[in-house]
Design goal:
By secondary structure, the chain is of the alpha/beta class. It contains 13 helices and 13 strands. The structure holds pyridoxal-5'-phosphate and zinc ion.
């Protein structure tokens, strides 16, 4: 028996059946999967998930699949919460943690959404997907598509598609098409190709399943902090699927009685060169103006105007949260610092969230006793182009000299958290 009951429009409330693939509502807005939460509350205690395998599928009652429906999985999710034991206390944040999504298959949290989306597509007989992407979405959908036996086209801008994303899409058998144009062109052209050829377009919040994968990050936060959510969650925001998904997760968890009413303040973190959500928060508007002339090295947040911007803004405001823009030099400096001092090689997206936490601590918006979680959405290893190195080469008939290295820097003693 499944607790998944129907799809519901986030704007007009109209309900839709679950037996076919749907993109958006007839009114054009995003759909959410809905569940029989009262029944879960009556039948499923939260302790029942704690002995299950450490993947995002441990929350299966709150995922859009029947009990015997097979899913495509590579063990995604249930990623660790890593304390920043040096950097946190040094910045006045003794309870600063990174949720390290870089441990997911493909090295990026997009695996969560792709696992659910691909599984659902296969279950509903959809087997040709076209995925326009500027970040790492293509990598994940290509990999899960390969595992499910689906045909995947990935379209990305030729100008700033990261090399790793291009390569791993090719390796996992996706058809990769490079677009010579803007990201607006990318989405317009992909949509048109999908319509003309009968392929299914995969765009954030324009199908209801990716968000069901990403919301599991919210379930994990609750469980990993002993069913009491942290005080602040910082998230690198592009299309906002993760933020919207986590907010949905918290509502579902409260409705099934697994958590109380406490919510974290949600912080959308964007790059100074592309910060439409941060700007909308500052201006108090309900939707974003499209960002003109985006310019940043952080691919995951390169979205000029998120399709479901109004849902992102609604969640942030309801949570009492805010938005922070971090410029690229500060992001890169933090990426290096976390690698040096914590051994954590995070993505620039992840570094951005830590930099933002420190900024909010300095301004007083985060207090010294707050439990703070910064999301690292991908491993730094997906971004080798950001690292420049000049390494000594020693010839085979020479000796390696070890005394020319600079002295290791003195380290502060980590406070216990
Ligand atoms: C896609 C992506 C993001 C943004 O995620 P959304 O949930 O769409 O806002 C952040 N970081 C990385 C590494 C990404 O690939
Ligand atoms: Zn609607």
């Amino acid at each position: 028996m499944s607790y998944y009951t129907h799809l519901e429009c986030t704007a007009c409330g109209r309900t839709h059946p679950t037996d076919r693939w749907l993109g958006v509502c007839t009114c054009g807005r995003s759909l959410f999967a809905r569940y029989d939460l009262a029944r879960i509350r009556a039948e499923v205690p939260r302790e029942s998930v704690t002995h299950r395998s450490p993947t995002m599928w441990r929350y299966r009652e709150l995922m859009p699949f029947g009990r015997d429906e097979s899913v495509v999985t590579m063990g995604e999710g249930y990623t660790p919460i890593v304390p920043l034991a040096l950097v946190g206390p040094a910045c006045g944040l003794p309870r600063l943690f990174v949720k390290d999504e870089g441990r997911n298959p493909t090295g990026v949290f997009k695996a969560r959404g792709a696992a659910v989306g691909v599984s659902k597509a296969r279950a509903l007989g959809i087997n040709r997907l076209i995925v326009p992407t500027v970040g790492s979405g293509g990598s994940a959908w290509a990999a899960y598509g390969a595992r499910a036996g689906l045909e995947i086209v990935v379209t990305m801008p030729v100008s700033d598609a990261p090399m790793i994303a291009r390569k791993d899409c090719v390796v996992t058998g996706a058809h990769v098409v490079l677009i010579d144009g803007t990201t607006t062109d990318l989405f317009r052209m992909s949509q048109r190709a999908a319509e003309r050829n009968g392929w299914t377009p995969i765009v954030a919040l324009q199908e209801p399943f990716r968000v069901e994968g990403k919301k599991t990050m919210g379930f994990e936060l609750a469980e990993q902090f002993g069913w009491e959510l942290p005080d602040v969650v910082l998230y690198p925001t592009g299309g906002g699927v993760g933020l919207i998904g986590m907010w949905k997760a918290f509502e579902e968890l409260e409705a099934v009685g697994w958590i109380g009413s406490k919510r974290p303040r949600l912080v959308a973190v964007q790059a100074a060169g592309c910060a439409p959500i941060v700007r909308a928060i500052r201006n108090g508007t309900e939707a974003c103006e499209p960002w003109e002339g985006m310019n940043t090295i952080v691919p995951g947040v390169k979205v000029a105007k998120a399709f479901a911007d109004w849902l992102i803004l609604k969640a942030i405001r309801a949570s009492g949260g805010t938005g922070v823009a971090v410029d690229d030099p500060e992001t890169l400096a933090m990426q290096h610092r976390l690698a040096l001092e914590e051994g954590l090689y995070v993505s620039p997206e992840g570094a951005m969230t830590v930099a933002a936490a420190i900024r909010l601590r300095e301004s007083g918006a985060i207090g010294p006793h707050d439990t703070v979680v910064a999301f690292n959405t991908a491993t730094g290893m997906r971004y080798p182009h950001l690292v420049r190195d000049e390494l000594p080469i020693v010839h085979a008939d020479e000796e390696i000299v070890l005394d020319g290295f600079p002295k290791p820097r003195a380290r502060v003693t980590p406070a216990t958290t």
